[in-house]
């Protein structure tokens, strides 16, 4: 027995959701959000979802209203008798709060997982979690997709035999090493020390990048401090060029200015988070076809492991 599928979008991911729905082959569902004068809002589905498999697409980057809107939509779908509710969070916010790294702090990623499950979600689909173990915070299935599916073909195109993969910090070494093995290139790592969050005290390069075309890989670019400092350092060490591939374009604070003024040739990102403004150095690759195809496979109970180019 086959069940109907409907795809809806939160306001933060409207453009991406339209592309995903088109890739899947159905129109995007109709959602209205009523805004009240005190700042409250109320989403409502303007078409039946009874007995349907409902996919709700919403990245949960700040402001917190994006997360709350997703929770309200999940609750609305549950109360409207949807058969299954799948939350698609291309960017899973609060993922950097995946552990207690100092006393008396929250584990925000676990709290968000608890809230999504309490709202009534049956499955989560997301991309490039900041820490893979966040999947274990959920008691429902998690489809964790990888930006490598999108980025790898582009890296192959750029591979002129002179490439070297690089990680902007030790935490990204595993990801960069996976690309290096797949592309048969060398590996360089930046070692950084922080005074406080979003502020780098010192950075050094491990590896020989002289005369090489460097490709930096990371899961996200926030203030771009690490990325641009690493790019400048690679050029100082004799690199010919530096490109960066980052799945999530958080790009907060002075990020755009730093990127424009840096030695980065190009920053390639996906559309899991919409850009706040355009930049001549930033290129966007869409994840819509990937998510559309994974939805098809999920509905038809097919394996999605073919999409894991590098995991």
TrEMBL record:
Return the Gene3D superfamilies for the record. 3.40.50.2020
Q: Kindly report, in one word, the top-level EC class recorded for this enzyme.
A: transferase
**Is Magnesium included in the keywords of this UniProt record?**
yes
GO cellular component entries: cytoplasm; ribose phosphate diphosphokinase complex
Q: What is its EC number?
A: 2.7.6.1
Task: Name the Gene Ontology molecular function terms of this record.
Answer: ATP binding; kinase activity; magnesium ion binding; ribose phosphate diphosphokinase activity
| UniProt key word Metal-binding | yes
Q: What is this protein called?
A: ribose-phosphate diphosphokinase
């Amino acid at each position: 027995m086959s069940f109907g599928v409907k795809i809806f979008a939160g306001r933060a991911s409207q453009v991406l959701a339209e592309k995903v729905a088109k890739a899947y082959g159905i129109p995007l569902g109709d959602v209205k959000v009523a805004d009240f004068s005190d700042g409250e809002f109320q989403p409502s589905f303007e078409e039946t979802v009874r007995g349907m498999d409902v996919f709700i697409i919403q990245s949960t980057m700040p402001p917190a209203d994006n997360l709350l809107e997703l929770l309200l939509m999940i609750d609305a779908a549950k109360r409207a008798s949807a058969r299954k509710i799948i939350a698609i969070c291309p960017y899973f916010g609060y993922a950097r709060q995946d552990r207690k790294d100092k006393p008396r702090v929250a584990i925000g990623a676990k709290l968000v997982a608890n809230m999504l499950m309490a709202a009534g979600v049956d499955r989560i689909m997301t991309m490039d979690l900041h820490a893979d173990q966040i999947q274990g915070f959920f008691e429902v299935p998690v489809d964790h997709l990888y930006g490598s599916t999108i980025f790898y073909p582009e890296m192959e195109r750029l591979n002129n035999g002179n490439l070297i993969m690089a990680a902007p910090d030790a935490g990204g070494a595993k990801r960069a090493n996976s690309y290096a093995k797949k592309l048969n290139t060398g590996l360089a790592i930046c070692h950084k020390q922080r005074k406080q969050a979003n502020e780098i005290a010192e950075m050094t390069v491990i590896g020989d990048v002289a005369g090489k075309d460097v490709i930096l890989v990371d899961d996200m670019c926030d203030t771009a401090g690490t990325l641009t400092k690493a790019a400048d350092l690679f050029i100082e060490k004799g690199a010919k060029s530096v490109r960066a591939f980052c799945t999530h374009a958080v790009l907060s604070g002075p990020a755009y200015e730093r990127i424009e003024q840096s030695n980065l040739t190009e920053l390639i990102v996906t559309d899991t988070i919409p850009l706040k403004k355009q930049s001549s150095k930033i290129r966007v690759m869409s994840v819509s076809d990937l998510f559309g195809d994974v939805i098809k496979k999920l509905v038809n109970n097919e394996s999605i492991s073919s999409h894991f180019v590098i995991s």
